[in-house]
Design goal:
377 residues, mainly alpha, 2 domains, two-stranded antiparallel sheet, 14 helices, 7 strands, globular, disordered N terminus, disordered C terminus
Length: 377
């Protein structure tokens, strides 16, 4: 579907938060409503749903993307965020999401909110699976403090210890398929050699930023903090926790790949540390016998070592983002942008590093595609 575009479209894509003063004012309105104990969360949710329903019928509801790439329906983004909020971060997350939507009285405000979540929440999670290997190996999720003034790389020692600790904790087996890590297959067991991967739940690419673009990480982690239900202490310690066993699980290569690409996720049951394997969409991302399987995390290395189990907030956020990407249509749009840029760049999509900033990377891709299409049309 084609929608009107103008010369400012490309430049508008690079910054989804217009002015600091407007951001501060918007956040103050959201936080004020969240703190208003006289209004029930269900009331805000009802109002937000009405806003989304009205937006869904408005012809100006689209988030503009490059030509030949599907525009993003802002109403679908807001709807997916609201529908998955409680499951991701509990009532507080649902209240935050509903209040944010209610704080946008005009159509352009609602589209800008959806664009902010599209760029600063959904894209950084997607970018972690598409960036070149040198970025994935060298960058680390930063510590976010009040001044957002530092980016500290995870220590080499901690990163090298990650797989060893997670493997010992998970009993040297893939938590989904049950296959053994090659060197640890019990004698007499008929299993081919499989090398398991230590899969990170929260990727290093989430929130990576450079000194001149600290505001992008601030935006990303501000959304994550309110949407995920994570404590402030956890957010502040993400630089360390990214390579902590609480952020990992052992997976065989093919399952690791689709988990990283947010095609499968774990949904928590009513039991602590117990999850059901789920997938997005109707495509068979996973072997049928593994879909719907219930898995329970426990420390197989106890009592030798007290290794932490996967953080349920990390798993819930991964699950929420997986569902939102699919429900909103954002995953398809991101795939189109990446494929189209790869073609325009002669197959060198991984070379666009954008100073290690995934949000700026997407903006640069979009801007490049606008320029490229204008030259060939």
């Amino acid at each position: 579907m084609s929608h009107s575009r103008n010369a400012s479209d490309a430049s508008d894509l690079s910054e989804t938060i217009s002015e600091p003063e407007s951001v501060i004012s918007f956040n103050e309105n959201v936080y004020f409503n969240m703190q208003n104990a006289t209004v029930f969360t269900a009331t805000y949710v009802g109002q937000a749903r009405q806003t989304i329903e009205q937006l869904a019928t408005n012809e100006n509801r689209w988030i503009t993307t490059p030509p030949s790439v599907h525009d993003v329906d802002a109403s679908r983004v807001l709807d997916a965020m609201l529908r998955n909020a409680r499951g991701t971060g509990g009532e507080t997350s649902e209240r935050y999401t509903a209040c944010a939507i209610c704080a946008c009285p005009e159509i352009h405000d609602q589209v800008n909110l959806a664009r902010t979540w599209f760029m600063y929440l959904l894209w950084p999670f997607t970018a972690g699976t598409h960036r070149s290997s040198d970025l994935n190996s060298e960058q680390a999720t930063p510590t976010i403090d009040d001044t957002y003034d530092s980016l500290v790389s995870a220590s080499t020692e901690r990163r090298s210890r990650f797989r060893t600790d997670v493997n010992r904790r998970d009993g040297y087996r893939c938590v989904v398929s049950g296959l053994w890590d090659g060197p640890h297959v019990p004698a007499g067991l008929d299993q081919g050699y499989v090398t398991l991967n230590g899969a990170h739940i929260m990727k290093r690419a989430v929130g990576v930023f450079t000194m001149d673009r600290a505001h992008t990480a601030a935006a990303t982690w501000n959304i994550i903090r309110h949407y995920s239900g994570m404590s402030e202490e956890t957010i502040q310690n993400m630089e360390r926790l990214v390579d902590d066993p609480s952020n990992g699980m052992m997976l065989q290569h093919d399952i690791h790949d689709i988990f990283d690409k947010l095609k499968i996720y774990l949904e928590q049951t009513e039991q602590e540390n117990e999850y059901v394997v789920k997938e997005v969409g109707s495509r068979a991302w996973l072997h049928r016998e593994l879909l719907g399987k219930t898995i329970t995390f426990r420390n197989h290395d106890a009592p030798t070592r007290n290794l932490p189990l996967p953080n349920p907030h990390f798993i819930a956020l991964h699950a929420g983002i997986s569902r939102i990407l699919h429900m909103s249509g954002a995953s398809e749009v991101f795939a189109q942008i990446l494929d189209k840029y790869d073609g325009a760049a002669g197959g060198n999509v991984g070379n666009l590093k954008s100073n290690g900033d995934p949000v700026h990377q997407l903006s640069s891709m979009m801007s490049a595609l606008f320029i490229h299409d204008s030259l060939i049309t």
